[in-house]
Amino acid sequence: MFTESTVTFIALGAIFAFSFYAVLNAGQLSLGQAGFASVAAYTSVLVAPDPDVVGDVPALLIALVVGAAVGTAAAVVLGLPTMHLRGVFLAIATLGFAEAVRIFLLNAEWTGGAQGMSVPKIVTPAIAWMVLALVAYWFWRSGPTRYGRALEAIREDELAAGAMGIDVGRHRLGAFATAGAVAGLYGVLWAYTVRLVAPADFGFTAAIDGLVTAMVGGTTMFIGPVVGSAFLTVIPEIQRALGVEAGWIRPFVAGLLLLVVILFLPGGLAGRIPRRIRVPNLGGGSGGSDAGSDADGGSTDLRTREHAPRGDVVARLSGLSKDYGGVHAVRDVDLEIHSGELLGLIGPNGAGKTTLVNMISGLVAPSSGEASVLGVTAGRTPVHRVAAAGVSRTFQHSKLFDRLSALENVLVGGHLVTRPTLLRRLAWLPSARRDEQAALTHAARCLRRVGMLDAATARAGALSYGDQRRLEIARALAADPSLLILDEPAAGMNTVEAGELAHLIRSLADDGLAVLLIEHNVGLVRQICDRVVVLNFGEVIAAGVPAEVAADPRVVEAYLGTEA
User: Fold this and answer.
1) CATH 3.40.50.300 intervals, the chain
2) Can you tell me where the transmembrane regions are (predicted)?
3) Are residues 217 and 211 in contact, defined by beta-carbon separation less than 8 angstroms?
4) Buried b / exposed e across 88-100, counting CB within 10 Å, b at 16+?
């Protein structure tokens, strides 16, 4: 049943599926890979030397290098203007590119038109599988690195990923370029396998076939494309072995499997394989207060951030305003936040609190005024650069990476302070292992700081609401911030949990961290905050120490209203 042709096409199908895996793993839906493959195939056939002159293997190696380079270039050229697109819009734009390439090749004289170009058969099963092993090796080794975790974070929630300091655009373009390189390899191998390169081989059907193979195999584990290709390639062989000659069975089974995966197995067939998560043994149990620091002793090999001395201004807001049409969400806010200060921001629902912190963290540009935060101008600076300056935050509505474990979430939070290891991991350099171990240890300490170390291997989406809020704080602490913004962290917690959280937040400010706390629990704010600012209808109506603010008549009126 497993003929030489079948074995070869399993490898080719897996390589093509990897070009889809590369972008799906970064949350992108691209259908342009067939176009990249066709451009690479035709270019390599024209440029590569004659195998009869230099030999089969040298000619194929040159063709593969050319194909990967051309595929990468085509992906970058297409990716630069389309990176702002998402979902179905990106799929349509990339599909349009692939169809435009196919039609051009179909009508160009030098391509042979619909008849295609004759190519010598060079690829053997061994060659196909060696190239597949090389491609799989890239994804295997890149997965548990800072780069690989950044792509997974973007896939799960790109807004949260940007707030963690990840340059979303650059990483998405990198994933696109990887997809182009892998698709280019596939195009060359296909041409030198089937002895012909024709536009019909790289049409819409080929693109959908590659997408289905990747999704059925799984987009959350590197082995997925191989599993999907093996499963779908052997279906026709099983048919032939059973004497069933029905060409519709394979696409029917593929479509049915895709439906099952979307509905019941979002991680694909390979997604059923459990992720291996190593949790460092810190000793001393799951409590303690030294996570995020080096109190356990030993070198962490993390990037260090220079924090402002206690009492220095870390954020200064001058006339900060935000309008949405005729609605004034925030109006003329002047405010300073100091290092080592725990500043409470309170106000009734709709007062503009979240809008204000969104402007401070760079997620929302102000309509007027200026927010100078740790040396950068928030709103005029990309959000990942605001995070790089030392701003870290949680969100009003939890934005965890649900399909990642608690430890992996915190590893993403440490993106800015951990070292890149991708190239060193590919070369198996010992320093890469040391740096990855340092990142794991740092993440585990952050989990221990919030009392979550025992849940390190649990999937974030399966945690209780209270644990998710604590995990968000651990992820924010992993960035070693100078300014920590907590947006209603005690929401949904019971009295005991809120009390423990209050102790944690107070300890962070005592360590010298500037903390901006948004909270509806006025009792908690009065208990732990050094200073309180009250917003109502977007304006500051009171500011000062908690006891004075709580007694202010304007604050009482804002919260309780007045009698008619």
Assistant:
1) 311-389+520-564
2) 6-24, 60-80, 87-110, 122-140, 173-192, 212-235, 247-269
3) no
4) eebbebbbebbbe
Query: Do β-strands 342-346 and 531-536 pair in parallel, antiparallel, or remain unpaired?
Result: parallel
Q: Which of 180, 148, 197, 198 is nearest to 73 (CA)?
A: 180
**What angle is formed at CA 184 by the lines to CA 181 and CA 188, rounded to 5 degrees?**
145
Sign of the four-CA dihedral 293, 297, 299, 300: negative
Per residue in 324-335, pLDDT tens?
887 889 999 999
- CATH top class, domain 311-389+520-564: alpha beta
Measure the CA–CA gap between 451 and 287, rounded to whole angstroms. Answer: 6
Closest CA to 371 of 241, 483, 521: 483
- Please, what is the Cα angle at 350 between 345 and 356, to 5 degrees? 45
CB 461 within 8 A of CB 402: yes
Kindly report the length of the chain.
Answer: 564
DSSP readout, 497-515? HHHHHHHHHHHHHHTT-EE
Give CA–CA dist 464/352, Å, rounded: 28
Three-state SS at 559:
helix
The pLDDT value given to residue 555: 84
- Per-residue model confidence as pLDDT tens digits over 500-537: 889 999 999 999 999 999 988 888 888 899 999 999 98
Say how many C-beta atoms besides its own lie within 10 A of residue 42's C-beta: 27
Q: To 5 degrees, how large is the angle CA 258–CA 259–CA 261?
A: 65
